[in-house]
Each structure stands twice: as C-alpha cells, then as structure tokens.
Design goal:
It holds the Pfam family Cas_Csn2. This is CRISPR-associated protein, Csn2 family. It comes from Megasphaera hutchinsoni. With 224 residues, this protein is an alpha/beta fold. It folds into 2 domains: 153 residues, 3-Layer(aba) Sandwich (Rossmann fold); 57 residues, no CATH class. Helices cover 42% and strands 19% of the residues. A hairpin with a 5-residue loop joins β9 and β10. α3 packs across α5 and α3 crosses α6. The longest helix has 21 residues. It is elongated and about 80 Å long.
C-alpha cells in the first residue's frame, strides 16, 4: 500500500512488517492537511491518495481516522451494525433456544392481550436479528487503560469493519516508547494496517525493526 499527497512529492510505502510514521513539522501545514484528510473521509474531494495493488482506495469507505485517543469506544453506528450482524449469525445457530424463547414470548403475549381492554395484535415470532437488536449490545470499556483501549479498538475496527487503513494522529503524544512498541508489535502480528501522523519535530524511531520514520520539514520538504 502507498500513501501520497498530491500537492507534494510525498510518497510513503506501507508494509505489514513495520509501521510508517510521518512527522509534519510545519503546524499550519499539519492542520491543513489533517483537516483535508478528515473531509475526504467524510466524503469530500481532496489531495490525499491511498493505493493498494495499484488501485485507489475510497477514503470514506476504506480509511479510518483517529485523532482523539481519549474518546475512542468502538460504539459508532457502523461498528455496532457489524457487531449485531456477527452476533445474529451466532444466535441463528441456536435454533432450539430461539424456538423456546419464542414459545415463551407467545404465551406471555397471549396472556397480556387477553387482559387488554381492546383487541391488540403482536408479532408472532421474533427472529435472531430482532432479539439481538432488543439486547442493545455494545462494547463496554469501563476504566480500561489507554493502551488496552487502543489495542482493543484497533482489533474491533480491523475485525468488524474490515477497514483497509487506520490513520492514528499524534499517538506518540499519549504513550511511552514501550507502549508504542507494544501497539506496533500487536499491529504487525495481527496485520492491522496503521499509518501514524505526528505534529512537531521528528523523533527517532522507537525501534528500527518496528517503525520507519518520514518527515515533511518546516520548509515542506519531504525527507525519507
């Protein structure tokens, strides 16, 4: 996979074997390009280009942008719909249990309607999808530490949404080098496609085997 920005000579090769990190030293340029990327993911036109096997990715469908690690929870509508579909497929295999549940519900509904002051109708049977929807399933985070929260979120996005790229912004500002190594190792091991963008002056790689660093300096020159 490659990452390009059409208004510069930036071209970054992404790999399953390491994490690519781009430092943007010019803060105005950082803000402008990140705003543009956010708009592209929302469906607007822009100059960020992501390609895989020489095919351009659809930013809105294929790319996830994470800018605030304190507010990731995996409970956005698109993720929950995938979770519910997955749980429904499991519930559909429990045919005997579904029959028992519907049998008991029919008895309950019959008793309720007999006591109603007017004639009322009801749904004769609930599907596995109906029952999962009624369960209001969602991810519970509690007091999860930031490192565990991020790793779990990356797993959720990769496994359920099947996103082709997750862009993490300023993750280094929140984590120690040891924590970053754990995140990178996890992503490489599970083949979770991430690309990191950092603001400010370039730092050394946390581990040259895990991370490859690129820079757009304050004069907007691309350094690799």
């Amino acid at each position: 996979m490659k990452v390009l920005y059409a208004l510069s000579d930036m071209e970054i090769e992404l790999s399953e074997n390491y994490v690519a990190t781009l430092y943007i030293e010019n803060m105005l340029y950082f803000r402008h390009t990140l705003q543009e990327l956010s708009a592209q993911i929302a469906g607007a036109e822009g100059h960020w280009v992501f390609t895989q096997a020489q095919q351009q990715l659809d930013c809105k469908k294929d790319v996830i942008l994470v800018t605030d690690l304190f507010h990731i929870d995996g409970n956005q509508k698109s993720v929950l719909s995938k979770l519910h579909a997955y749980l429904t497929s499991i519930a559909e295999e429990e045919s005997e249990l579904l029959y028992e549940i519907n049998d008991k519900l029919r008895r309950l509904y019959t008793e309720i309607t007999l006591q109603a002051p007017v004639e009322v109708g009801y749904k004769a049977a609930l599907s596995a999808q109906d029952l999962i929807k009624a369960g209001d399933f969602k991810f519970e985070w509690g007091e999860t530490e930031l490192l565990e929260r991020l790793v779990t979120y990356l797993d959720i996005i990769c496994d359920l949404l099947k996103s082709k790229l997750i862009v993490l912004v300023n993750v280094r500002k929140y984590m120690t080098e040891e924590e970053l190594k754990l995140v990178y190792e996890h992503c490489i091991r599970k083949k979770i496609p991430i690309f990191c963008i950092e603001s400010g002056y370039t730092c050394h790689s946390v581990d040259e085997l895990l991370e490859k660093v690129y820079t757009i300096d304050k004069d907007l020159c691309f350094i690799y």
